[in-house]
Amino acid sequence: MLRPAVLTVAVALAGLACLPGCRRQAPWQAADWRPATAPQRIVAASVLATEVLLAIAPRERLAGVHVLAADPRYSLVAAEAKGLLLVGAEPEQLLAARPDLVVCDAFTRPETLALLAAAGVPFVQTATPQSFDDIAGNITRLGAVCWLEPQAQALVAGMRQQLTALQQKAPQLAGWQVASLDGALHTYGRGSLFDALVRATGASNLAGDRGVGPFRKLDVETVLGWQPHALVLGGADATDGDVPAWLAQQPGLSLLPCVARARLVRIPSPLLATTSHRLVEAAARLQDALLQWGRP
After folding, report:
1. Per-residue DSSP letters for 116-140?
2. Whole-angstrom Cα distance, residue 296 to residue 230?
3. Are 93 and 67 in contact, with CB atoms under 8 Å apart?
4. What is the pLDDT of residues 74-106, one digit of tens each?
5. Are the CB atoms for 77 and 51 separated by under 8 Å?
6. Which of 39, 42, 113, 126 is a good FRET partner for 149, with 20 to 30 A between their CA atoms?
7. The domain that contains 211 carries what CATH number?
8. Are 162 and 284 in contact (CB under 8 A)?
9. Between the CA of residue 162 and those of 132, 159, 193, 282, what are the distances in Å?
10. For 2-25, what is each residue's pLDDT tens digit?
11. Is the domain of 217 the same as that of 286?
12. How many CA atoms lie within 13 A of 31 on its CB side?
């Protein structure tokens, strides 16, 4: 006998056979869609959705959260996610939670969305944010579809209040040029949230200023040529001492004045990589570090 979740997927797959000839937009695909009643079994199928919904929704309304949301290597709410049903990206797992709403992201596979639609399960997709305004837009959208508008508005207001506090100190950092770097020499430029958080502090993101797009792998010669005033390091272990091991092992990087002066800002990877309202906390950490150092 098929399990209920497997049976649901099988029925959905059968329904997919007619999609080429009878494809119609589902109501929830409209930008202003809001369910007729408040969903009570919400599945947060991304880390972003989990971080936001755990901040605005009653816990009992979450029928499941993405498995990575319970992993402290990737999530800022791993502790809060304990005890909730954990689901992966497979439609069988999502449907097994018996959701009345699934919150996905832009990276959810089209076939998963098609199976949810064929099973009659409403879903919404958050946009990939490039700015704090985009983050606010995602939170506002989740507030609307989950019937949690006041809580979402309060969350956005709190984030904007923190940004205003950063802006008041921003003129003091006008001369700073910083860059992000990891052990593979990856960096983030224009169109990335890293660029948004740096500019929120009043400093400049050197990669963005040099024409780098959202993501690029650099070489040592390029980093040396840029001469950043400070490096932002994600995932650096505080036990590494003044200079993390991977940085010390990169030939040539020790020649950077910012490395010699230990002007290295360490931000935990889940915080640096978050796409939720919590990103403003990373900006505050960066601004505090640069203010303590004074001039570049």
Report:
1. HHHTT--EEE----SSHHHHHHHHH
2. 8
3. no
4. 999 999 999 999 999 899 999 999 999 999 999
5. yes
6. 113
7. 3.40.50.1980
8. yes
9. 11, 5, 16, 11
10. 454 444 444 444 444 444 434 567
11. yes
12. 3
Interatomic CA distance for residues 258 and 264, integer angstroms: 7
**Same domain? 54 vs 149:** yes
Task: Please name the residues in contact with 129: beta carbons below 8 A apart, sequence gap of 6 or more.
Answer: 135, 137, 138, 193, 275
Q: Any idea which residue has 């901040």 for tokens?
A: 55
Task: In whole angstroms, give the CA distance from residue 137 to residue 277.
Answer: 11
Strand pairing partners for 97? none
**Strands (DSSP E) along 49-161, which ranges?**
62-66, 86-87, 101-104, 123-125
User: What domain count does the chain have?
Assistant: 2
Q: Collapsing DSSP states into helix, strand and coil, what is residue 24?
A: coil
Task: Identify whether residues 125 and 178 lie together within a single domain.
Answer: no
The H or E element that residue 8 is part of is helix 4-16
Q: For residue range 168-215, list pLDDT tens digits in order.
A: 999 999 999 999 999 899 999 999 999 999 999 999 999 999 999 999
CB-CB contact of 153 with 55 (8 Å): no
For residue 114, is it within any domain?
Answer: yes
Pick from 25, 16, 31: which is nearest to 125 by CA?
A: 31
Question: E-strand spans in the chain?
Answer: 42-44, 62-66, 86-87, 101-104, 123-125, 177-181, 186-187, 204-205, 216-217, 230-234, 264-267
Structure tokens at 175: 């001369």
Is residue 269 within 8 A of residue 280, CB to CB? The reply is no
Whether residue 15 lies inside any domain: the answer is no
Q: What angle do CA 174, 177, 178 make, to 5 degrees?
A: 130
Q: Which amino acid is at 267?
A: I
Token code pair at residue 241:
């001492």
pTM of the full structure = 0.89
Which of 157, 180, 215 is a domain's end point?
Answer: 157
Q: What is the DSSP letter of 244?
A: -
226 and 142 in a single domain? The answer is no
